[in-house]
Specification:
CATH class of the largest domain: Alpha Beta
Oligomer: single chain
Distance between the termini: 64 Å
Keywords: Membrane, Transmembrane, Transmembrane helix
CATH superfamily of the largest domain: Dihydrodipicolinate Reductase, domain 2
Strand order of the largest sheet: 3-4-5
CATH topology of the largest domain: Dihydrodipicolinate Reductase, domain 2
Radius of gyration: 31 Å
Length: about 190
């Protein structure tokens, strides 16, 4: 239903494990030799003797981290795919399917409005605005029995993943207009 977060989770887990390992190694080194620095002097001497390759390597690691971070950020914010469907040599656009499901959903008793999007392979995401006093159980039964089952039949699939969000409509406000003195209003109308 939602875009896959597997890559983000794996990358966050890998970065977390690396940070944990580096932190654990620093703690272990500190416990073993309190007076020794975290980086071994032999390593620091070698790095000073090979300053150019060490700098280039660190720059390359920094650039790699920037590229991976930008790719990760782009993947997280890029627009979702709304795929068109191929049914018996006929292409049904995601917009057309969403409009048909929205029209069906708005006919359900108690629904004031609906927003529908088709995502994934395919899946539906519905956001229904219910009227005040709507019977949620009835809306749910009609939605499953009429709207989603009709969409499954139209697509020729047994299972159509559907996410439904229910919102309540804002209460209508009734304004009471205060009329002025009757003589003044009548005089204004006669001019």
């Amino acid at each position: 239903m939602n875009r896959s977060n597997r890559t983000e989770r794996v990358m966050a887990a890998v970065l977390g494990v690396l940070a944990l390992l580096v932190g654990g190694a620093a703690v272990v080194l500190h416990r073993l030799a309190v007076d020794r620095p975290v980086l071994d002097p032999v390593v620091l001497d070698w790095a000073r003797r090979h300053l150019l390759p060490v700098r280039l390597g660190l720059i390359a690691l920094g650039l790699l981290a920037v590229v991976l971070g930008l790719r990760w950020a782009w993947r997280a914010v890029r627009p979702e795919r709304h795929p068109d469907l191929l049914l018996d040599d006929v292409v049904v656009t995601a917009k057309a399917l969403a409009a048909a499901v929205r029209a069906d959903a708005e006919q359900v008793h108690g629904v004031a409005g609906a927003k529908v999007s088709v995502v994934g392979r395919p899946a539906l995401r519905l956001r229904l605005t219910l009227r005040h006093g709507a019977d949620v159980h009835r809306v749910w039964r009609e939605l499953d029995g009429r709207v989603v089952s009709r969409a499954r039949a139209a697509l020729g699939v047994e299972v159509l993943p559907t996410a439904v969000r229910l919102d309540l409509a804002k209460r209508e406000r009734h304004r009471v207009h205060r009329a002025g003195p009757p003589g003044r209003m009548a005089g204004w109308l006669s001019r």
